Amino acid sequence: MIARVSSDIPNFSESLSAAIPGISLNIMALIIFSGVLIYLSWQLALVVFATLPFYNISINTFNKKLKKLSKLEREKNSKVMEGIRESIEGTLTIKRFNKSNYFIEALKSYINDWIKASNKHNLFIQSIEDFITFIRGICPIIVLSFGGYLVMKGDITLGTLIGFYSFMNWIYEPVRVISHFFISLQSTIPVFKRIKEIHEMEEETSGLELLNKVKNIEYRNVYFSYDSIPILEGLNLKIRSNERIAIVGESGSGKTTVIKLVMRYFNVDKGNILVNGKSIVEYSLHDLRRKIIVVHQNDFLFNMSIRENILLGEKFSEKEFTNAIKVACIDKFINELGKGYDTIVGERGTRLSDGQKQRIAIARAVIRKPDVLILDEATSGIDSQTEAEIFKNLQNLNITVIIISHRLSTIKKADRIIVLHKGRVICEGNHENLLKNCRKYNDIIRNQLIVV
Description:
This protein has helices spanning 2-40, 42-89, 91-96, 100-153, 158-199, 255-262, 285-291, 306-311, 318-327, 354-366, 384-395, 408-411, 431-437, 439-447; strands at residues 216-226, 229-240, 244-249, 270-275, 278-279, 292-296, 372-376, 400-404, 416-421, 424-429. The protein is an alpha/beta fold.
């Protein structure tokens, strides 16, 4: 995506903006000069015109190869951009495992591949232009030979031949320029296709129904697959207003998918998800995502202040801001930071601990007063005492809380625990009941959960 935005679009725009006026002006010049040559000698003009198709033949002959090399060069360029991005974003991991040399060599390899592909592409373009130049060099010899024959026959004068020869070179310049731009446009076709792929991506569709308050959510016989791999298979689940539920299951059981579907990051393959008895596709996406907010384990923090990361440009009163930071217990650590809420968190929040980043993400969600707050491993980096305080604060807000976690201390705070297995609800109840009646829950507790 970065390569297409930073490289493909400027290249395509530059080629197009130069080619269209260049081709238009030179076509006009070609028509004028052709008229002059016909006026001087139609016989010699036919000789010149007979060589022009070779320009088109040479371009069409090499066209397929040119597109292939152009596409390869763009793909290698994208690989370089991706390598640079990964190296920057993974700096800490690279340092931690002393893999600087490994990634330097990998990036060198990407760059060398790109250089090779770029050189092949440029060399091929130059070869086409050299071939066209060769054709242009042969034509004057043919014109002089045939023109001399016409002079001897008395069909034209020597002055006409000299004049024709002088004007003849003028017609080849617009032909050369048009050919050059045509080759350039052929090279941009793969670039255009790469840009077009982005424009043709399926866009999110929003319903028109307004959503004032989420009273209940129901998954009714929901099926969903990723790349033909089934994740949810006939899921049925009801979530009531102001309920606090936890969703547990083995890796791959579909816990996070349940959340992604209610947020309409994806649409279900079969079945339906209802909010207040209506399909979620009928609701405005803006309303849906305003009333149902997800906080993930590693929610993105922008390189801005803590205050700006919470507000994100929206207007909230100081009281609303204060309440949100108290619910998320940010006030417990804010005095440790030099500039308080104006402290810049760094790129992706690198100047803060995982727990501090998670508390900021929770405050960012709470200040928007959602009806449903989904915590997807959102307290994994927070100590148990602070976590307990946050959940107590959330309980006072009278909102529905959905918890996805691998921490027993977190799950036990739920009123109802949902156990997922292979995309279905196999058990539900409180912690004590599930320990007695659900073998899968016992297996999950014993094998996966961190008892805190």
